[in-house]
Structure to design on (321 residues):
C-alpha cells in the first residue's frame, strides 16, 4: 500500500467548498466572510505549506524515523486495518497536542494563529501555523511511530485528520444527529473556537469527540448563547508576519523582564495569560469566574422559585387570609 498526500489532493475541493459557502452566505445575508480576513487565512495556509516543504517536514520526519527505529512492535503490516488503528492512535495523540496547544504558552504561541480570526468559515481552517516545528509539536506523533507504525503511515493519517477538520469550520451546518456523540462536528468545533467563558478550554478532538468526553473537556453548544470568535485580545495589525509571530514576540517581551526562574518557566510554559502576580486573565480563571456567576444566578433563581411555591401553599394562603 502506497501513501499519497491527502492535503494535496483535497485542495481543489477546499476551493470549491469555500466558493459554495460564500455564495450560500451571501444569499442568506450571513456576513461570515470579509476580504481582509480571508486573505490572511489563505496567506497563513500557503505560508504553512512553504515552511513545511522548506524544513518542517524534514525535522518531523527525522524525529518519527528515530522513534520508529526504536519501535516496540517489529513488523506491523501495511494494511487497511493497521492504517485504521494508526488513525485512531494518532487522533488520540492529536487530542493531547491540541490540548497542550491551549494550556501551555509555548505551544499556544504556535497555535494561536488558527484562532486569531473573528470569523468562522471554511477559510479559517486554512489559517495554519508557520511555527509548529519551532514549538516541537511533532513530538506528539512520535509515540505512534514508537509503537511500530512507519513514519509514512503516520504522515498519511495526520494529513487525513487535517483534511477531515476542514469541513467542521462552518456555521452553515447545524447538528448532525447521533453522530454528534462520536465525531467532532461543526457544532462542537464552533464551541472550541469561541471566546465565550462558557465555552473556553473545550472540544480539542480532531476527528473524534470521544476523547473530550473521556477526559472531561467536552462542552455542548448552547443555542441561547451563540459563539463569539477570536482570541482574548484582538490583533493590532493585519500584517501577515505579525499574525504569524505575535505571540512569540509577546513571549520574548515578557522574558526580557524576568527576575526569577519561576518567572522564566511561567512566562514560557505556564498557561497563556500567566503572570507572576496573577494580574492577567487566563482562560481557566475566566471559565471559573463564569461558573461561579452561573452558580450564584442559579441559586437566586431557585430561591425565587421556592418563594413562589411557598406563597401558593394552603398554609401560606391561610396565613395571608
Amino acid at each position: 500500500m502506497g501513501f499519497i498526500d491527502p492535503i494535496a489532493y483535497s485542495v481543489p475541493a477546499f476551493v470549491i467548498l469555500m466558493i459554495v459557502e460564500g455564495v450560500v452566505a451571501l444569499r442568506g445575508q450571513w456576513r461570515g466572510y470579509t476580504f481582509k480576513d480571508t486573505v490572511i487565512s489563505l496567506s497563513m495556509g500557503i505560508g504553512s505549506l512553504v515552511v513545511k516543504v522548506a524544513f518542517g517536514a524534514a525535522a518531523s520526519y527525522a524525529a518519527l524515523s528515530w522513534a520508529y527505529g526504536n519501535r516496540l512492535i517489529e513488523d506491523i503490516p501495511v494494511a487497511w486495518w493497521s492504517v485504521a488503528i494508526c488513525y485512531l492512535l494518532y487522533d488520540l495523540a492529536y487530542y493531547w497536542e491540541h490540548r497542550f496547544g491551549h494550556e501551555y504558552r509555548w505551544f499556544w504561541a504556535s497555535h494561536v494563529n488558527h484562532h486569531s480570526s473573528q470569523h468562522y468559515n471554511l477559510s479559517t481552517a486554512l489559517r495554519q501555523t508557520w511555527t509548529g516545528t519551532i514549538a516541537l509539536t511533532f513530538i506528539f506523533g512520535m509515540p505512534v511511530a514508537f509503537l511500530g507504525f512507519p513514519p509514512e503511515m503516520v504522515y498519511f493519517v495526520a494529513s487525513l485528520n487535517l483534511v477531515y477538520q476542514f469541513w467542521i469550520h462552518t456555521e452553515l451546518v447545524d447538528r448532525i444527529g447521533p453522530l454528534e456523540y462520536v465525531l467532532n462536528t461543526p457544532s462542537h468545533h464552533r464551541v472550541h473556537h469561541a471566546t465565550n467563558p462558557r465555552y473556553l478550554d473545550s472540544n480539542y478532538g480532531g476527528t473524534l469527540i470521544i476523547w473530550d468526553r473521556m477526559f472531561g473537556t467536552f462542552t455542548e453548544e448552547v443555542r441561547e448563547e451563540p459563539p463569539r470568535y477570536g482570541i482574548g485580545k484582538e490583533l493590532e495589525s493585519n500584517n501577515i508576519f505579525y499574525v504569524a509571530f505575535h505571540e512569540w514576540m509577546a513571549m520574548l517581551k515578557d522574558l526580557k523582564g524576568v527576575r526569577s526562574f519561576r518567572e522564566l518557566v511561567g512566562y514560557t510554559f505556564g498557561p497563556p495569560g500567566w503572570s507572576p502576580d496573577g494580574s492577567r486573565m487566563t482562560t481557566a480563571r475566566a471559565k471559573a469566574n463564569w461558573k461561579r456567576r452561573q452558580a450564584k444566578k442559579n441559586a437566586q433563581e431557585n430561591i425565587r422559585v421556592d418563594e413562589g411555591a411557598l406563597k401558593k401553599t394552603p398554609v401560606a394562603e391561610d396565613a395571608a387570609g
